[in-house]
Automatic annotation (TrEMBL), chain A:
PANTHER family according to UniProt: THIOL:DISULFIDE INTERCHANGE PROTEIN DSBE
UniProt keyword Ribonucleoprotein, yes or no: no
Pfam family, one: Redoxin
UniProt-recorded name of the protein: Thiol:disulfide interchange protein
Chief place where the protein resides: membrane
A GO molecular-function annotation: disulfide oxidoreductase activity
Compartments (UniProt record): Cell inner membrane
Automatic annotation (TrEMBL), chain B:
Keywords: Cytochrome c-type biogenesis, Heme, Iron, Membrane, Metal-binding, Signal, Transmembrane, Transmembrane helix
Any one GO BP annotation for this protein: cytochrome complex assembly
Name of the featured protein: Cytochrome c-type biogenesis protein
Listed GO MF terms: metal ion binding
Domain of life: Bacteria
GO CC annotation terms, alphabetical: plasma membrane
Signal sequence extent: 1-20
Length: 178, 161
């Protein structure tokens, strides 16, 4: 019994060391979204390219990527060609033009090609706020019922797509077909 | 001449920096101003991680400050406003974590450790004292008897050598 008590400090040290060691590999900038498994917040916003109005119901039907972007966002320019490629491969992508000038956004889509099926104009950032967006680019993965299943913050490149998002997207597509 | 120009440019750029985090809000009364200050200091900027939103120049912090101002104007309570932020940005935005099963250790862990330490200290001190009063050698009666017996045997051992 006394022997065991002598081992107690070692045990405590090992437990603390284990936690701290694990802490070394956590990414403190990683923020889990508060909206996972919740529906896309209700909205009614104009389209970027025409006079139409888009609501949360328009996002339903197919699993999709919902990409938050802006012309002032430098890294969105890097991401854009990747989105174009994904769209060519048949991935459904919707765009939220976040706190941007609509004329600039139209020009951008004409110049760099438009990978988005729906183009939502969130000039005031109200939808962005309800989605918990804190910078661009951010991308949400939604299922066919418009439920947010995953959020990715930062630039989607080929590697991110291949290793993180493609399996999840495929999973949602398979789920939708069942 | 060049130096003066450099100083002037530096000075001008500083003006830009110091003005960036100042918004002009008209509050209904002093109480609302205090609540605004308190709330913006209690909420963390999602973009800049280790700053509160009162302190941050990030665009998102500006937006959240405006949102808080709007909600204060609508007469919402502090809890409602914090709840609004947590619903969108997660528990992360609270500098003061909510008290629930997951944060129990965080809230009471340090106090628990302190109390535990005092209890341990008390036990050790008490044991030490009771030992001192009971005999002084620190041996139980059994051990004392064995020791006495061994001491008596000592001469025998010497003869054997």
């Amino acid at each position: 019994m006394k022997r065991l008590i002598l081992l107690l400090p070692l045990a405590i040290f090992l437990a603390v060391a284990l936690f701290l060691y694990r802490g070394l590999f956590l990414d403190p900038s990683e923020l889990p979204s508060a909206l996972i498994d919740k529906p896309v917040p209700a909205f009614s916003l104009p389209a970027v390219l025409d006079d139409g109005v888009i609501t949360q119901d328009d996002l339903k039907g197919k699993p999709a990527l919902v990409n938050v972007w802006a012309t002032w966002c430098v890294s969105c320019r890097v991401e854009h060609p990747v989105l174009n490629k994904l769209a060519e491969r048949g991935v459904v992508i919707h765009g939220i033009n976040y706190k941007d000038d609509n004329a600039d956004a139209q020009k951008w889509l004409q110049e760099f090609h438009n990978p988005y099926q729906l183009n939502i104009n969130d000039e005031q950032g109200s939808l962005g706020l309800n989605l918990g967006v804190y910078g661009a680019p951010e991308t949400f993965l939604i299922d066919k019922d418009g439920i947010i299943r995953h959020k990715f913050v930062g630039v989607i490149d080929e590697r991110v797509w291949r290793e993180q998002l493609a399996p999840l997207y495929q999973g949602l597509v398979d789920e939708a077909e069942q | 001449m060049k130096r003066w120009l450099a100083v002037a440019i530096l000075g001008l750029s500083l003006i830009g920096v110091t003005q960036a985090a100042i918004d002009t809000y008209e509050f209904a009364d002093e109480a609302e101003r205090t609540r605004f200050r308190q709330l913006t200091q209690e909420l963390r900027c999602p973009k800049c991680q280790n700053q509160d939103i009162a302190d941050s120049n990030a665009p998102i912090a500006t937006d959240l400050r405006r949102e808080i101002f709007r909600m204060l104007g609508e007469g919402q309570s502090n809890e409602q406003i914090v709840e609004f932020m947590v619903d969108r940005y997660g528990e992360f935005v609270r500098y003061k974590p909510a008290l629930n099963a997951r944060t129990l250790l965080l809230w009471y862990g340090p106090a628990g450790l302190l109390v535990g330490g005092f209890v341990l200290l008390g036990v050790i001190v008490l044991r030490h004292r009771s030992k001192k009063t009971s005999g002084g050698s620190g041996l139980s009666t059994d051990e004392q008897q064995r020791l006495d017996a061994l001491l008596k045997q000592a001469p025998l051992d010497k003869k054997e050598q």
